[in-house]
Automatic annotation (TrEMBL):
This is Phospholipid metabolism protein. It comes from Cryomyces antarcticus. Residues 1-178 form the PRELI/MSF1 domain. InterPro entries: PRELI/MSF1_dom, Slowmo/Ups. It comes from the Eukaryota.
Length: 192
C-alpha cells in the first residue's frame, strides 16, 4: 500500500474554485484531453444541510503502453467513479473517486478537498489531495511494490498537470465572474 499527498493554495476565492471545479474537464483545458466524457449519474441537494451531492462517471483514454494493454487484455478506456459534496455553509468541496477499470488488480482511492485558506480566507483556496493505492498481486511483493510505486509516480506527474490545467480554468472563470459583476452593476445603474 502506498500513499500520495499534495497540498496547494490557489490564488482564487472559494466561490471561484468551487464553481470552476465543474469546468475542470472542459474541452479547452489542454491538461485534461485524456478525459473524453463526464456523465452525471445523480445530483441532489440535502434540504436539511444544503449540501449538493453529485455522482459522476469519468471516462478517460488510457495512456498505458500497448504491450501492457495486450497483456492485461484491456481496452484503451478507463472509468472512474466520483462522488462530490459541496457544502456552501462550511465552504468546503470534497471529491472522492475510485477507479473502476482494473479494480481487481489495482485500487486507487482519491480524496480532494477545497476550502478557504486559513491565511487569506477571502482571497485564496486551499487544495488538499490524498490517494491510497493498493496493488493486488498475491504473494508477489516485488511486483506489487513496483506497480504501486509506478502509480504514485504517475499520480505525482498528473497532479502537476492537473493543477496547471485547473489554473487555466480558474483564470477563465475569474473573467466570467468579472463580466457578470459588471453586467449586474450596469443593470442596477440602469434601474436608478
Amino acid at each position: 500500500m502506498k500513499f500520495f499527498e499534495s497540498t496547494y493554495e490557489f490564488d482564487y476565492t472559494w466561490e471561484e474554485v468551487s464553481t470552476g471545479n465543474w469546468r475542470k474537464y472542459c474541452p479547452w483545458n489542454k491538461q485534461t484531453t485524456h478525459v473524453i466524457a463526464v456523465d452525471t449519474l445523480q445530483r441532489n441537494v440535502d434540504p436539511a444541510t444544503g449540501i449538493l451531492r453529485t455522482e459522476r462517471l469519468i471516462t478517460c483514454q488510457q495512456s498505458a503502453p500497448k504491450w501492457l494493454m495486450a497483456f492485461l487484455g484491456g481496452e484503451d478506456r478507463s472509468y472512474v467513479y466520483e462522488t462530490s459534496y459541496v457544502d456552501p455553509a462550511a465552504k468546503k468541496v470534497t471529491m472522492c473517486s475510485q477507479n473502476m477499470t482494473y479494480a481487481d488488480l489495482l485500487s486507487v482511492r482519491e480524496t480532494v478537498v477545497y476550502r478557504p485558506s486559513s491565511g487569506a480566507p477571502n482571497a485564496r483556496t486551499e487544495f488538499h489531495q490524498h490517494a491510497k493505492i493498493i496493488a493486488f498481486c498475491g504473494g508477489w511483493q516485488k511486483v506489487k511494490n513496483s506497480i504501486e510505486e509506478f502509480t504514485v509516480d504517475r499520480f505525482r506527474q498528473n497532479a502537476i498537470k492537473g493543477r496547471e490545467g485547473f489554473e487555466a480554468v480558474l483564470e477563465m472563470s475569474r473573467k466570467v465572474f468579472a463580466q457578470e459583476r459588471e453586467r449586474q452593476a450596469l443593470m442596477q445603474a440602469a434601474r436608478m
